[in-house]
Each structure stands twice: as C-alpha cells, then as structure tokens.
Amino acid sequence: MQNKLQYQMGFKEWALLIFLSILWGGSFFFSKIALRELQPFTIVFTRVSLAAILLNGILIATGQRLPGAPKRWAGFLLMGTLNNAVPFSLIFWGQTQISSGLASILNATTPLWTILLAHLLTRDERLTANKVGGVLFGILGVTTLIGWDLFKGIQGNAWAQLAVVGAAVSYAFAGIFAKRLKETKPLTLAAGQLTCSSILMLPIMLIIDRPWTQPFPSTTVIGAMLSLVVLSTALAYIIYFRLLAVAGATNALLVTFLIPVSALTLGIVILHEVFTASQFIGMALIGFGLVLMDGRVLARLRQPRNKTTSNLSMNDQQL
Asked: Are 84 and 204 in contact, with CB atoms under 8 Å apart?
C-alpha cells in the first residue's frame, strides 16, 4: 500500500513538476550564457557552492541545522556526487560542443535509465510491458538524436552527446538512492548534498580551470550565474526533493521530459539556436516512450471505450 501511495501525483504535484521543469529548463539557457566566458568546472563549483551557502543560511535563519551523524553525511556525499558533481560537470562540458536544446533532450532520457536501473537494483519497481516499450522508444529517440556522430568518435560531437547521456544515468542512480533518504527534510537534503558537492568540486576547479588566469566575467554572465544558483539550483532542489518524497523517483524524474520544451524555447527565442528535424523526431520518440511508461494517459484513453462497451453489454442484457 505504501508503494502505491508513493507513486501517486495530484494536481499540486503536477503543478510543482511543471514549475520545476521551467527552473531546470532555464539552467541549460543560463549555463550556455555563462559558458561564453567561464570554464565548465568553474560554473559547476560556483553553482553548487553559492547555492549551498544560500540554503545553509536559510537553515540557520529558520532555526534548523544539518545533522552531525557520519551516516547522514555519507548519504549527502553520495547524493552530491551523483546528483551534482558528476552530471553538472558532464552537462556543462557537453554544452561547450552542443546546443542547450540538444543537451536538454538527451537529459530527458533520465526516466528511461531510472526504470532500467530500478528494475535491476530494487524489488518494488519491476519492468512492465509499458515500461519495456517506453524504454525501446526512448533508446530509439536517443539514437536518432546522436545519429552517425556516434561512429565518428572524436571527429564529431558524439562524445559531448554521450557525456550528457552519462549525466542522465548519474541522475537515475541518484534518484534511486534518494529513496533511502526520504525521511530527511527536502531543505536539509538539498543543503547537505550541495555542501558536499562544493567540497568535491573545489580542487577540480582549481587544478583544471585555474580561474585566477581567466578575465572577470561580464554583468550578463554574473546575472546568468545568479539565476542558475538561486532559481535553477537552490529553489529547484527544494521542490525536487519534495516531489521525490511524495511521488517517488520515477514520477519525479519525469520532469526531464518537460525540460526540453523550456530549454528549446529559450534557446531558439533568445540564443537564436536552430531546431533541427532530427531533434524534433528524437524528442517525439522520447516523449512517446515516457507517455507509454507512465501508462496513465493510455489508460484514460481506454476508459470511454470500456464504458461504451459496458453500456452496450447492459443494453443487450436488457433486450
């Protein structure tokens, strides 16, 4: 009974999911602007460290604090690695070679990997016919997006695209592991994981990017970074962990299907990026796969037909 309740989503949860998709869709837009002047690891560290400071400040202001138990911090460290350090680094590096729209579409494969990994790693989320079909359509969508670049190796941008897919897999692992931390308050969990990811990213940023050798960013980039920190990280993770606790990993990570709409719109309108036919086809295939996995839309489409059949049967009996 508890597992069924975990995966239910009402109007409030769907509203939060849509709002979260806008916040995370904006992250691809903001990071693309920041990448014009900043190095990828510098953006990752700035994003997680400033967000960690902000959320820890909110904890202190509300009379709360991070737990001191080593076991809790081990969980924060793993979440910070899987949910921040690894995927952020892969996505930002990938965006140096591919558009923000394409990166967001590849990121939308997260639920596909979540369902596959949940089947292998958990006992309460097994594969079904709808899920298998959804996975197949999703993989077909990813293949359509990557295309022949997959066989060009370093001569094309396949590595950048595969890096973003790797980020999606990392998000999937994080979503599954987060079930073990569902008793932790969303604000505490967000602050804890961002604190740990800040510690992880600091030496990487200093060694690889050497930010002191780079020119000071423009006001446009600073504005983009502040939006990335406050909206797409601090606020977004509070909402995400709230959804994760109520709706479960699979439903919460469906947000990645809605993210491309926001990111593509921002990229086309403001960054003047080109939306190609292969991106449209790939997104459509991934979208159909997610709808098939979710099952609720198809179930509702069958309801009127079932009701009509039931009514006809009752009339036949009366005749």
From this structure: no
Q: Label residue 196 exposed, middle or buried (CB < 10 Å: 0-12, 13-18, 19+).
A: buried
Chain-centroid distance, C-alpha 272: 24
Residue 111, exposed/middle/buried by CB under 10 A (0-12, 13-18, 19+)?
A: buried
pLDDT, tens digit (0-9, with 9 covering 90-100), for 248-285 = 776 777 777 777 767 666 667 776 777 778 878 887 88
pLDDT digits (tens, 9 = 90+) for 175-201: 889 888 878 899 999 999 999 999 999
Report the C-alpha gap between 302 and 296 in whole angstroms.
10
Cα-based distances in Å from 158 to 12, 106, 149, 197, 258: 39, 12, 5, 27, 24
Question: What would the DSSP string read from start to end of the chain?
Answer: -HHHHHT---HHHHHHHHHHHHHHHHHHHHHHHHTTTS-HHHHHHHHHHHHHHHHHHHHHHTT------HHHHHHHHHHHIIIIIHHHHHHHHHTTTS-HHHHHHHHTTHHHHHHHHHHHH-SS----HHHHHHHHHHHHHHHHHHGGGGGTGGGTTHHHHHHHHHHHHHHHHHHHHGGGGTTS-HHHHHHHHHHHHHHHHHHHIIIII-GGGSPPPPHHHHHHHHHHHIIIIIIHHHHHHHHHHHHHHHHHTTHHHHHHHHHHHHHHHTS-----HHHHHHHHHHHHHHHHHH-HHHHHHHHHHHHHHHHHHHHHHH-
Angstrom CA distances, 248 to 157, 241, 304, stand at 34, 10, 29
Sorted by where each begins, the domain ranges of the chain are 2-318
Rounded to whole angstroms, how far apart are CA atoms 285 and 290?
A: 9
Q: How confident is the model at residue 1 (pLDDT cuts 50, 70, 90)?
A: very low
The CA–CA distances, whole Å, from 223 to 2, 47, 56, 123, 256 equal 43, 12, 22, 45, 24
